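Methods, example record. To illustrate the input and output format used throughout this study, we show the complete record for branched-chain-amino-acid transaminase. The sequence lines were provided to the predictor; the line carrying structure tokens was produced by it.
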Amino acid sequence: MTDTLDIKITQTSASRLQETDFADLPFGKVFTDHMFVADYEDGEWKNFQIVPYGDMSFSPAMSVLHYGQAFFEGLKVYKHADGKAVIFRPYKNADRFNKSAARLCAPELPRDIFVQSIAALVDIDRGWIPEGNGNSLYIRPFMFSTDPYLGVQPSKSYKFIVLACPVGAYYSKPLNVKIETKFSRSAEGGFGFAKAAGNYAGSLLPALEAMKEGYDQLIWTDGKDHAYIEELGTANVVFVIDGKIVTPSTRDTILEGITRDTLLTLARHWDLPVEERRVSVEEVIAALKEGRMTEAFGVGTAATITPIAAISLDGERFELPDPANAEFSKKALKTLDEIRYGITPDTFEWNYIV
Ligand code: PLP
Ligand code: COI
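The corresponding predicted structure is encoded as:
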């Protein structure tokens, strides 16, 4: 860590903590008492503040509203039995945030500012970290352009904000997904690798259509031929085929997930065969038809490790074996939870203690 950030703290005089129902935590709807806010102006980051969570006012000409220079991160904080708050792999998110920033012509945010801002918010709102397996404090850092100017050019001013939400599971049951062969999430040379707000805007209609057809989610394929598997709408995708852990290699069209990296690190640590490579739709369908695919699941911060129950292509549905018997994904989730909740030693040094 570099020097501690100089943060001006304005505490709320009316905490909502006591009136919050921790037994009912819909994802992303309940916010903690405070938020972190910083400004980028005149070529530097300044005005580091923690203020009560609440509405803000902006110019209607603010450039993000017109040209979409906005991107975000998602990470989680866990509470250990001894009361410690632990942020999971925040420097990885800091680095990905800056990859998004570079692609969207936004300023770099020094990784220590990223991590310290989160740590400071977690510290002040530590009473909001929910207990219980599967529960955590979801952290949403984001940056957007604020120049009140309608010309198309990179903004000169930005805001960086961090919100925190106590959450439970994002998906409550194994997913019924379809392989998307009409719409595309991203294209080569585009910004699919960035956690840009626009990537999610473009995914809403295809996801809505998939839901109308009775699916929970879709699996994106490459934008050129729809011949190769890319990722899920909110997570990376991993298969177990012929006993091997197979996942699409990341490229400029795919978000390089931190949960994906964590899971592959565990698999390699256990000496399991891992293949990161292009995965064709044809291969996936053949493995499903021939019963060679024993597991499929999504991996992401919000999704954690969510099993896939069935995969469809052009209306033809293929069931996977009961996820309750999944060997690898269940073991990985158990190990991951034990590390995150401080039950086993964090030998990989993934936990950042606040
Ligand atoms: N892919 C997409 C499109 C996502 O939204 C996410 C979630 O953040 C992921 C993959 C997984 O990334 P991570 O594991 O870093 O959360
Ligand atoms: C995350 O897992 O952090 C995500 O960003 C997924 C989704 C909630 C947008």
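Annotations derived from this record:
The longest strand covers residues 136-145.
The chain has two domains: 8-168, 175-340.
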